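hey team, just a heads up i'm posting the complex here instead of the shared drive bc the drive is being weird again. everything in one block, sequence lines first with there labels, then the predicted structure for the whole assembly after. its six chains so it's a bit long, scroll down
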Amino acid sequence: MDTKSALLIGRFQPLHSGHIKVIEEIARDFNEIIIGIGSSQESHTQKNPFTAGERVTMLKNSLDSLKNRNNNFKNFNYLIIPIPDVNNNSIWVSHVISLTPEFDVVYTRNKLVTRLFKEAGFVVRRQGLYDRGRHEGTEIRRKIFEGKRWEELVPKEAAEVIRKIGGVERIRELS
Amino acid sequence: MDTKSALLIGRFQPLHSGHIKVIEEIARDFNEIIIGIGSSQESHTQKNPFTAGERVTMLKNSLDSLKNRNNNFKNFNYLIIPIPDVNNNSIWVSHVISLTPEFDVVYTRNKLVTRLFKEAGFVVRRQGLYDRGRHEGTEIRRKIFEGKRWEELVPKEAAEVIRKIGGVERIRELS
Amino acid sequence: MDTKSALLIGRFQPLHSGHIKVIEEIARDFNEIIIGIGSSQESHTQKNPFTAGERVTMLKNSLDSLKNRNNNFKNFNYLIIPIPDVNNNSIWVSHVISLTPEFDVVYTRNKLVTRLFKEAGFVVRRQGLYDRGRHEGTEIRRKIFEGKRWEELVPKEAAEVIRKIGGVERIRELS
Amino acid sequence: MDTKSALLIGRFQPLHSGHIKVIEEIARDFNEIIIGIGSSQESHTQKNPFTAGERVTMLKNSLDSLKNRNNNFKNFNYLIIPIPDVNNNSIWVSHVISLTPEFDVVYTRNKLVTRLFKEAGFVVRRQGLYDRGRHEGTEIRRKIFEGKRWEELVPKEAAEVIRKIGGVERIRELS
Amino acid sequence: MDTKSALLIGRFQPLHSGHIKVIEEIARDFNEIIIGIGSSQESHTQKNPFTAGERVTMLKNSLDSLKNRNNNFKNFNYLIIPIPDVNNNSIWVSHVISLTPEFDVVYTRNKLVTRLFKEAGFVVRRQGLYDRGRHEGTEIRRKIFEGKRWEELVPKEAAEVIRKIGGVERIRELS
Amino acid sequence: MDTKSALLIGRFQPLHSGHIKVIEEIARDFNEIIIGIGSSQESHTQKNPFTAGERVTMLKNSLDSLKNRNNNFKNFNYLIIPIPDVNNNSIWVSHVISLTPEFDVVYTRNKLVTRLFKEAGFVVRRQGLYDRGRHEGTEIRRKIFEGKRWEELVPKEAAEVIRKIGGVERIRELS
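-- predicted structure starts here --
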């Protein structure tokens, strides 16, 4: 059987359960996922509190745990590629291509990413929504800032990373 | 047992059997390797013919094959992180840290990388040499250019990637 | 007779009939116009939907048609120079100078461009307004987004370019 | 006695009397101050009207006058270092370190700067407030724009620089 | 008849008679030429002595003179587009496309440009050589530096620009 | 008496006694010197081993000592401004101006800097040579690398900085 790859583009600020649901959905159709971490150079801002390395760690720990827990994922492989912004949208797709192995389909919820890949002739799938209101980065960062419950909205392994690096304090001090 | 991570820094132009030997050496002491692809923005030059994405593919295919062939590597995990140059050596270590999960030791053969990580207080191990004359990027690129035998010096999966992308023609036309 | 050149700075998102009126005004006093396309690296955003190349095409097609239709423009020459932002206003004028032939006067409606050229000792003319409310990029992009009539506000050739590249859909999907 | 150095980070848009009070406070504990001018590449905007060179001149003239007037400052030395933004917060501290001599303590009122230096293990002191409402860059730029009295809020030497470079007109034309 | 466009890529350091011969060749098959000035940000070095603006002026003056002198060129249109380097070869073609109107064929003598456009699926024509030894930028810059005769190797209008801007002195002082 | 300022441009890799002689020469005609540290972003290379901050420290310590030792320098003021490269020579002068207070004359030994400031209309003085062969950065870095005597060629305070930061080892490991 041929390898079939999907590219998932997101900022993962932070990784949350909605992302995991999308990855599970992708795993049903593809045997490889390339996860592109957008705006990888950003960190320590309200909108992008976590560094690329911290986001890589959240993804790696959560996906390894998923593979250990669930036999369906035993042969599902992932790659995590930080993608720095280029400040020139018309070359962005070719920038992504230069950083990644070949892929067959693009998954994203971002309008600009959707448009850019479509203009370049790629198949773009709009990922399912899964109770979208709650599982969104903005909403989760707001809960962390306001001291509300947020741990249940992100994978256990991501919550551990956030606590270990002092992410709660970081979000509160920067806001 | 705790995870112990090593960071291996190289340009992988192309990935060759010397690199694989170093990775095997690292796998004896660590259960995780983070492979940092240096000068990731470079491609299509004599010194850096392959894109980051092409180098990621060479590494991924070769390491997955290694894991399948060899039971010792079953639980050895790898991450592959492209690292673009920053043109300011004194901030380079902190740039690498911002892109990667935590690591315990740095492996590299590059003098500048060695010096920069040492000044930042890291433990740097100089990787073993393994018949170094032949297993060097410069030498392999020269052989490809001159039409000599080079496939035996790189992992089978890397040779496949190079052929598939027209890498032999690329190196010849650019030189 | 000496060549007298004017530099016209704008973003042309998109080129509209107000711009054409300014160019006609300039053509009465000068035999050459250098059209500097500001923020040339921007595209696919709400404020800057079109690439530099698309904006060059709108300008070229519209001005060639103007020269064909109108004998007064037969000997009026134009140059179109994309000008990427430099993110440092105090060097911007010298950046523009490095990209363009010599010019005698600057035409612009932008406050910052006006101030920077004045501080550098240039003569800056504020272009006439010509029913400004309607002939503004912001207003035209809004009309396109809302599905209102916009074609009558831009030169026929610019409207053709916008339709050909799928510009209407692009603006709607990005907004 | 050993030299003890403090690093003071600010944008100085413009230098005002609140900054001078902080510098006087620092002079009681340290015999050297390194003044880092943040966002040094910015100028000619509402938020950052003055160039790095203009801000250096305001600081130099005001501090030299302070040293001449006040015997306590005779042996207090200052360095003024422009610090361009790096667009990657996680490498910013290491960028500052690469541009400055060693320092023992950081003074700043900026939340992001505070957080970044704390994560890097530095001692950060929050400078005293001194009638903060009035002595703030935003407030002073607003007064200049609205034609209200502002000279009394900045050192005499800074006001002279602002007038000499046409800073009042610049702020009004750009707003 | 449809417009057929060719893209000619060169550095034009300086424009010389070999370039004009290529443009005349292109004019036989196409009714429009887009001239892309490569490495447009470079100037005042041995290899790239002239600014983009100076190179634009050489091209414009020489081509306008050609159109006036020669009836075959009456309806041949040119566009001159400065193309700054991007330091990432794998996105360079998409960078060029974002700056230019559509073109049907690429003319260049540069190996890297040839390879990059071919990998992107474009038709690349290797321009005729026309006594190549003499009509090369390197050779002409050498003659200027050594005080030998060089004017006969460049169009009259280009020689005028070089003299007017002090180009001879510039090349001598920098070498 | 009016302040008269000179701008001295150099890379100071490292600061050496030839530089001090030039500064003493400048101090006879001017009451203020602005020292621009060129290529400030470079470090840890053979040609540019020291960071901007390390070079600032060498300059500051040596000049403060000069002022203490020698009454002629009591009222001679200095400013030290790091100047990062801009990779576009035609905007470099305007970049320097944006970072510095006003100056009356430029001192430099660099051909490119000389040419750029002359084209911009500045007075450039070629600094005296003072036994130039020995007092050159290249020569001093070579001596350090080869383990020869070099301390006598640089101010005592600069030698202290170099030893304290491990500069001798750095040069040897990088070469």
